[in-house]
Each structure stands twice: as structure tokens, then as C-alpha cells.
Amino acid sequence: MTSDTIAAPRTPTAARRRGSNLEKWGWIYMRASGVLLVVLIFGHLFINLVAGDGVRQIDFAFVVGKYATPFWQWWDVIMLWLALIHGANGMRTIINDYVTHARTRTVLVWAVGLAAAFLILLGTLVVFTFDPCLGVTQDSSLWSMCKG
């Protein structure tokens, strides 16, 4: 091969790095989570906006009824986890593509990761510890439901 010849595409230039390929797994995650998110989000929208009385049914009692069943708790938590990780991975990709300074890139990727982890933790706690009777007083319209 002479110096004026271009190597064939995919010609190995160096020994392949050992270990897992995080970029490949991130790419696969984006595709798989995207498909699952479409199903979860359209199911969420159908139940909340189309079934029953439509958007008029959404009030505090609707949320209380939904979060009284583990099925809807897990539905919403899985949707939350997938969406936040999907979004954080997308932001990581954008940061890696456009931020050229290595230290800035590292700080931004860590900030996105920490923000996503915090929101996942907070959202999961809210869904699984939701208590409609917390802070209800005798003056509240929920008192009759919560006093027993």
C-alpha cells in the first residue's frame, strides 16, 4: 500500500480495545428505550386523556386512585426511569459531540448524570411514598376519607 492510497473502510488500524463498548450499549439503549417509551407514553395518554371522562377526570382523586395500585405506580416509575436515562444519555451524546475542552466535558457529563440520578430518586420516592392523607386537617374536604 503506497502513501497515496486510501485504506479500505473498516480496515483495522490498531488492536481492538478490550472490554465493553459503552457507546454501543448506549446506542442500543436509546433504541430499545425509545420503543418502550412510545408504548408507555401512549398508554399513559390514553388512560389519562381518552378513557373515561377524558381530561375532565384528572384531579387529585384520580391521582390518588391511580397510585393506590402497584400496576400504575410501576408503570409511571418505569416511564420516569426510561425517560430520564434516555434524556441524560442524549445530553451526554450532545456534550461529547460539541464540547471540545476535556475538563468542561467531564464536568458537564457528571452534572447531567447527577441531575438525572437525583430526579430518578426523587420521582421514585414521590410515586412509592405518595400519601393523600399527609397533612390533612379537619377543615379539608379529604378529612372524611383520611380519618379512618
Automatic annotation (TrEMBL):
Keyword list, A-Z: Heme, Iron, Membrane, Metal-binding, Transmembrane, Transmembrane helix
Membrane-spanning intervals of the chain: 26-51, 71-95, 107-130
Statement: the UniProt record of this protein carries the keyword Transmembrane: yes
Lineage: superkingdom: Bacteria
Localization of this protein: Membrane
Cited InterPro entries: SQR/QFR_C/D, SuccDH_FuR_B_TM-su
Pfam families (UniProt xref): Sdh_cyt
Protein name, entry field: Succinate dehydrogenase hydrophobic membrane anchor subunit
Organism annotation: Microbacterium candidum
Phylogenetic placement of the source organism: Bacteria, Bacillati, Actinomycetota, Actinomycetes, Micrococcales
